[in-house]
Each structure stands twice: as structure tokens, then as C-alpha cells.
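dumping this here so i dont lose it
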């Protein structure tokens, strides 16, 4: 138990392992959506100032929206767990024999028989908290998550802003570089590909898949989103501007 707890509290880089998924998906979404905005604005030839304005607006609005959605999703899971837990306590108090029979059935299905089965049942039902915890895991297949709604939302928003700002870096420093809008866009493409590659490698740790595959998949998805946005912006610019 102690070893398991230490393992769950480990870190990858500066992140608690429990929240890597939120960082990864917040970062991927932030980079891809912001890069798509940049590409769309470039396709429409809207200029550096507009690119920055649209990019920052996307970072704040979409990042906040995603973190709020993550907050309510995590909170709903925890609330559902607590609701079912209350029901189990009520059933133990009011439908005791039925609940005892369910415990016996559960462990009988696991191969326990005779006197050993009865001893296991007796140990479990001797403590209401253990009893309820057993019913939650074995009957309902529900385990209370360690993640809190505020931390999941915070990590998601932070990651969205951090990684999502990468496609805008070349435009932020446009005044200190020599080059036109097209060159700035190329710099943005390179920086975004690097950022997506790094997040993709981190994603492979979450999904436990091949790291190279995770990097290629993430970069390709970002590139596809950018290509679509660029040509949509180019088409709209030809019709509307």
C-alpha cells in the first residue's frame, strides 16, 4: 500500500503523474487550436496584429472553456461515486441480509468455498466502511479518483496556455526579427511541430504506446488542422475581402 502510494505520487519532469493526462491533452488541444487560428489568419492574409489578437483570444477563451469542462467532468465523477456510496450504506443498514448474500456471492465467484468463504464474509461485514468499500469496488466497479476538480482544471488551463502560446512566439518577437509574414509563419510551424513532438512523447507515457508513434501522430494531427484552417482562411479571404 505504501509503495503504491509513493508510485502514484511520482513525477515526470515537474508533473505529478496523476495529472499528466490533463497536461498532455490540454497542451495538444492548445497547440493545435492556436496553430489553426494562426494558419487561418495567415491564409486570409490578415496581418501580424490580427494573428496575435485572434491567437490570444483563442488561448484565453478555449483554454478556460476546456478547463471548466474538465472541472465539471471530474466533479460529476466524484459526486456520482459519493451518491452510490451513500446508497450502499443505506442498504447495509436496511437490507443487511441481501447485502451479506451479495458479498458471499461475489467471493464465491472468486473461488472461495465453505469455511474459508464464511470467514472472508465475516471479516468484511464486521466493518461497515470495509463492507461499503468492497461493494463499491466489486459490485459497482467504482473507485474514487484521487484527482480533484480544481487541480485537473488548473493543470488543463496552464498546459493550454503554455503549449498553446508556442505558435504565437514568432509573432510576439516579430519586431526583433528580420522577415515577412510568410517567414514568421514558417517559424511558427517549426516551433509548433517541436512543441507537439515534445507533448506527443509525453502522451506516449500516458497511453503506454511507442514514443515515436506518439510524436508522429500528434504532429500530423496538428499539421492537418493547420492545413485545413489555412485553406479555409484563403478561400474566405478570396470571397469576403
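and the seq i came up w/
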Amino acid at each position: 500500500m505504501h509503495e503504491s502510494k509513493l508510485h502514484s505520487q511520482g513525477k515526470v519532469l515537474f508533473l505529478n503523474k496523476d495529472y499528466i493526462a490533463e497536461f498532455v491533452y490540454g497542451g495538444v488541444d492548445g497547440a493545435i487550436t492556436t496553430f489553426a487560428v494562426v494558419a487561418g489568419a495567415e491564409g486570409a492574409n490578415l496581418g501580424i496584429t490580427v494573428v496575435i489578437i485572434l491567437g490570444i483570444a483563442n488561448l484565453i477563451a478555449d483554454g478556460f472553456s476546456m478547463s471548466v469542462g474538465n472541472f465539471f467532468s471530474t466533479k460529476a465523477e466524484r459526486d456520482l461515486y459519493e451518491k452510490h456510496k451513500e446508497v450502499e450504506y443505506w442498504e447495509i443498514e436496511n437490507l443487511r441480509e441481501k447485502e451479506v448474500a451479495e458479498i458471499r456471492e461475489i467471493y464465491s465467484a472468486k473461488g472461495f468455498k465453505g469455511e474459508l468463504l464464511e470467514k472472508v464474509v465475516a471479516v468484511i461485514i464486521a466493518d461497515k466502511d470495509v463492507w461499503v468499500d468492497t461493494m463499491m469496488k466489486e459490485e459497482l466497479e467504482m473507485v474514487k479518483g484521487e484527482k480533484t476538480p480544481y487541480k485537473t482544471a488548473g493543470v488543463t488551463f496552464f498546459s493550454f496556455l503554455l503549449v498553446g502560446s508556442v505558435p504565437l512566439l514568432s509573432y510576439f518577437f516579430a519586431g526583433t526579427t528580420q522577415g515577412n509574414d510568410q517567414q514568421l509563419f514558417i517559424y511558427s510551424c517549426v516551433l509548433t511541430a517541436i512543441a507537439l513532438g515534445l507533448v506527443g512523447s509525453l502522451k506516449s507515457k500516458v497511453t503506454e504506446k511507442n514514443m515515436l508513434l506518439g510524436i508522429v501522430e500528434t504532429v500530423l494531427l496538428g499539421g492537418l488542422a493547420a492545413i485545413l484552417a489555412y485553406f479555409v482562411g484563403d478561400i474566405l479571404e478570396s470571397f469576403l475581402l
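The longest strand covers residues 11-12.
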